[in-house]
């Protein structure tokens, strides 16, 4: 596995899916293009193959196995199996292969991925698979195949990026970006306002190893406040997590989720809020609620505030005055992750995922707030948001008040005899130690004044709109706006291939798009719960 590029940075557009729940991207495999879901809670890349005959497979572009791609390489004669089973009961199964991989101007040869020959995973918008951006520890392919490092970890381990990080800007109007190796300077205009949080590492499971390692993009959640009033957090495993509530950040989760104990206390502060679906952990609040939710992470008291237009899902059909709202309550997870912050939260920040450096630096999550407004949205703003959303959620509200259930905490999944900590320095599996660390050894949120912020690489997206000012011979000034044309691309078929392909326009900065529809592991059940609510 090697890349055809030296250390560089890359940036491309992030596009909101047609249902408004997730984001998609276009990548290249060989000389073909595919749309993939982006997921920071999984690590593998998989694509539907032409051999998959299920109705869900046939609805999307598939990798044509009968086409002899010059860059395709079989792994063990296509006998290395891949299987993923998700919390909603859906599956994706197939085999491992390698192919040249393209992202923006980046080319990686011999990238390991899975070709799916059997799946009942439903995808929309011609999405053909998933691109995971998580740690190798949660990679199925990495566990079953040699020389099969997941995509982003491979770039970091080979030193192919200016710095081993990626950044995500998520928007509702298709102006977001995904950058590799640098931070989008058109969004982050003041690096000193980025809060950097060291990631939590996790102990081994059973005989997995004798040391802790990084598992998910997760950091401590320090506090939660409703209109400035603090809510006491109740970690599910306080002894194991040193009394920290652990929060995961996942672009593959179209919601915000937390434990029953915290969520019930949160909504008890809303006037007339009520639990409306015990099985889904769903609350409804008055649609005109002028209330903010604020979160702090790590050890710095920097508030990240959600407005009603950030956490309100939509109007409930059973009662026009009530709206379903995030966060949704979940039973405790045996991995100790209590909170999951998905796209509703991530749209309010620019999120940086710094991968860490072997022996020198832990992984870090950087959060840059996109608004400094802490006062609640006005009723007029909320009403305008609900009108523009034009989505009334079919919901049968209970005729009586539901009691908050008592959640049972399962046994902790990991080996408690092996210590784990925040910001642990590990010897392998992070970025190559040839990188010069910017953060160094940190276990708490560092003071920006102590960091060499000028060493953080920046990248600027190419413009998609140009404004021209013209002065004619008479001295009259006119202004015009021009949109740069974006070529169409064919999905799932090489140039000149006789089989019918899917033609799509590639909006945004380049031909890369971004989407998230199938979060992995813990996140998948949550996604499906939301889809049930919105169906």
Automatic annotation (TrEMBL):
Keywords: Disulfide bond, Hydrolase, Membrane, Protease, Transmembrane, Transmembrane helix
Record-linked Pfam families: Asp
PROSITE patterns: PEPTIDASE_A1 (PS51767)
Cystine pairs: 52-57
Catalytic site: 39, 250
InterPro entries: Aspartic_peptidase_A1, Pepsin-like_dom, PEPTIDASE_A1, Peptidase_aspartic_dom_sf
Ribosomal protein as UniProt keyword: no
Positions of transmembrane segments: 512-534
GO biological process: proteolysis
Boundaries of every Peptidase A1 domain copy: 23-368
Listed GO MF terms: aspartic-type endopeptidase activity
Protein origin, superkingdom: Eukaryota
Matches recorded under PANTHER family: AGR407CP, BETA-SITE APP-CLEAVING ENZYME, ISOFORM A-RELATED
Similarity annotation: Belongs to the peptidase A1 family.
Descriptive protein name: Acid protease
């Amino acid at each position: 596995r090697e890349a055809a590029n030296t250390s560089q940075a890359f940036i491309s557009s992030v596009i909101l899916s047609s249902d408004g729940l997730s984001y998609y991207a276009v990548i290249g495999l060989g000389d073909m293009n595919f749309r993939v879901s982006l997921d920071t809670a999984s690590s593998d890349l998989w694509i539907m193959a032409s051999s998959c005959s299920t109705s869900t497979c046939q609805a999307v572009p598939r990798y044509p196995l009968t086409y002899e791609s010059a860059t395709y390489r079989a792994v063990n004669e296509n006998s290395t199996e891949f299987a993923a089973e998700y919390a909603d009961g859906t599956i994706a199964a197939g085999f491992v292969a390698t192919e040249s991989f393209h992202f923006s101007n980046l080319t990686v040869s011999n990238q390991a991925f899975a070709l799916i020959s059997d799946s009942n995973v439903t995808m929309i918008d011609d999405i053909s698979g998933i691109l995971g951006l998580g740690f190798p520890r949660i990679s199925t392919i990495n566990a079953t195949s040699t020389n099969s490092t997941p995509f982003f970890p491979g770039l970091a381990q080979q030193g192919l990026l200016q710095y081993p990080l990626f950044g995500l800007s998520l928007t509702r109007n298709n102006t977001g970006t995904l950058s590799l190796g640098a931070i989008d300077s058109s969004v982050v205009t003041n690096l000193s306002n980025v809060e950097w949080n060291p990631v939590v590492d996790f102990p081994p499971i059973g005989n997995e190893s004798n040391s802790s390692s990084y598992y998910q993009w997760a950091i401590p959640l320090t506090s939660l406040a409703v209109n400035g009033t603090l809510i006491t957090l109740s970690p599910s495993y306080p002894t194991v997590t040193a009394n920290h509530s652990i929060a995961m950040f996942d672009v593959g989760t179209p919601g915000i989720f937390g434990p029953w104990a915290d969520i019930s206390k949160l909504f008890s502060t809303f006037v007339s809020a009520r639990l409306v679906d015990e099985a889904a952990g769903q609350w409804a609040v008055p649609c005109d609620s002028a209330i903010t939710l604020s979160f702090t992470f790590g050890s710095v008291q920097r508030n990240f505030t959600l407005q009603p237009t950030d956490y309100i899902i939509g109007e409930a059909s059973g009662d026009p005055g009530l709206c379903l709202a995030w966060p949704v309550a979940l039973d405790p997870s045996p991995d100790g992750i209590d909170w999951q912050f998905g796209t509703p939260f991530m749209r309010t920040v620019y999120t940086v995922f710094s991968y860490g450096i072997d022996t020198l630096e832990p992984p870090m999550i950087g959060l840059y707030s996109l608004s400094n407004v802490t006062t609640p949205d006005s009723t007029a703003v909320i009403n305008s948001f609900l009108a523009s959303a034009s989505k009334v959620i079919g919901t049968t509200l209970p005729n009586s008040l539901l009691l908050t259930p008592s959640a049972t905490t399962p046994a902790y999944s990991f080996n408690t005899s092996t210590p784990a900590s925040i910001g642990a320095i590990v010897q392998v599996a992070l970025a190559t130690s040839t990188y010069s660390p910017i953060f160094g050894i940190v276990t708490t949120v560092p003071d920006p004044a102590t960091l060499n912020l000028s060493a953080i690489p920046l990248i600027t997206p190419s413009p998609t709109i140009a404004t021209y000012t013209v002065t004619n011979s008479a001295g009259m000034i006119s202004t015009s706006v021009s949109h740069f044309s974006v070529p169409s691309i064919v999905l799932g078929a090489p140039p000149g291939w006789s089989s019918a392909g899917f033609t799509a326009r590639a909006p945004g900065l380049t031909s890369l798009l971004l989407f998230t529809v199938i979060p992995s592991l813990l996140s998948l059940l949550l996604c499906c719960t939301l889809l049930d609510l919105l169906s």
